[in-house]
Design brief:
Blueprint: E1 3-9, H1 15-30, E2 34-40, H2 52-60, E3 82-85, H3 88-97, H4 101-105, E4 107-109, H5 131-158
Parallel strand pairs: 1-2, 1-3, 3-4
Helix pairs in contact: 1-5, 2-5
Length: about 160
């Protein structure tokens, strides 16, 4: 059975699809038995594609991208092994939705997987920014990938 990971941000058009496609790239490259997707805490952009700046940032870095925004639903807690919030607001929203302790335990912040993140575990929202803000988000996402991949590898060995 594949290990299932989802990333969650606000509208599911900037940060979470970026993290999704970076992790998908690494999972595919390593041949890991994992499924990766993303969603948002809000429904403002449901049905929309990823922000064009997210797509451009991913392409410049050599990643693929194909995305339709959706909103995270409480019933999905049973579907995922790991639910990754992009900032503290998403973390709180997901924790408030978690139906039990088992679901609560699946929720983590992305930057928890980056040993150099220090105390700042939020990935800032680049939506109102420019290219440099999207590039910065990509750098933070990429910095978390080695730790996240280690977590996935470990879970697959146990599973």
């Amino acid at each position: 059975m594949p290990y299932r990971v989802t990333f969650v941000c606000t509208g599911n058009i900037c940060r979470s699809p970026m993290a999704e496609w970076v992790l998908r790239h690494h999972v595919d490259e390593e041949g890991l038995d994992a499924e990766v997707d993303s969603s948002g805490t809000g429904g403002w952009h449901v049905g929309d594609g990823a922000d064009e700046r997210t797509v451009a940032t991913l392409r410049r870095a050599g990643y693929r991208s194909a995305h339709i925004a959706r909103q995270f639903e409480e019933s999905w807690f049973g579907r995922y092994d790991l639910i990754i919030a992009l900032d503290g607001g998403h973390l709180r929203a997901l924790r408030s939705m978690a139906p039990d302790e088992a679901a609560h335990a699946k929720i983590r912040l992305l930057r928890e997987f980056d040993p150099d993140a220090g105390g700042d575990l939020d990935v800032p929202d680049p939506y109102y920014g420019g290219r440099a803000d999207f590039d910065s988000v990509l750098a933070q996402v990429e910095a978390a990938m080695p730790g996240l991949l280690e977590e996935i590898r470990g879970a697959l060995k146990e599973g």
